[in-house]
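Something for you to look into today, if you have time. What I am after is a single protein written out in full by you. I want to see for myself how the chain folds. Could you add the entry underneath, on a fresh line?
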Amino acid sequence: MSRPSPLPVLRKEPAPILACLDLSPRSGPVARMAALFAKQTGRPLVFFHAMEGDLPAHQLPDPLEWHLSRSRARRFLEDLAASVEDSPGTIEITIREGQWQTALAEQCAALDPDIVIIGSSRSGDSGHLSGALLERGAGGLLVVPSRDFSEPAGRMRVMVPLDGSRFADTALSRARAIARMAAGELLLAHVIPSAGIEEFGPPGIGDLELERQIDRRNERAACEFLEAALRRLQAEGISARSRCLKGDPRACLDRLMAEERPGLVVLSARGQGVKTCENMALGSTAAYLLDHASVPIMVVPSRAATWRGEMPATSGTEGAFSARIPLNRRPAAA
């Protein structure tokens, strides 16, 4: 007989942070990031583990072996919770049975967590894995590299790639709230794609001039876009700066993450590409960055509304932040 689907839990306290952990040393970085994030946001923390069996579906496990396995898993999670230095307080431990993605989806339906934190995939397909979890209904998703990363000393730096889409605006709202709560710095990143034109033979003089005009127009629009966002953030008292690069967005953002070493990257699941691929849970740029991540990356679903952690609007500002307001036309800094 199949198990009934869990009913959503009505909570008066803030939605929890849910850390999905296995029983390997790879769980350490995930647990530490989850504890730090829960402490900074003031949310309860749940350590979650799924017990996956190797038996056929029709065969029941040995009761004694099952009990011992569950006891070992709980003991491991309890020791891990006790070893976390930045503990937010009491850490709840939940263990479910079954394939871990399915069990995690059930747990998300039951708890409605604010964000799910997982480790990067062993096989290097974190983008595919994240897309599958988002399709199963996961809200915000934070993917932590399998190895410990060394964040530069000083205030927390939160990097948010922006492409002018409404999805990137949602990611910026979440990054803005995190930076404010952590008293950190926001790094706005924008990549100007090369203005290519269709070539059916050698380009003509008019073609080259058209390409240069498009390049200049895109650079000017990028300057206006970034300056608008910076002015609004600075008016709210949030420390922020920007980086503007030109080229392939995936390669440029990957290189920028390696140079800046942010403590967190907040990335929209999709961007401008949604115009042609509306059914994709995860865009190609987000998938590439997740597969090559050397720093924690938070993926904000394209369907997400204003984040629960969003701070109330101050006098003269809106609660939902948008960067799409052009201002000046100074050259972009690379």
In short: Residues 205-235 form the longest helix (31 residues). The chain has a mean pLDDT of 78. The chain has eight helices and ten strands.
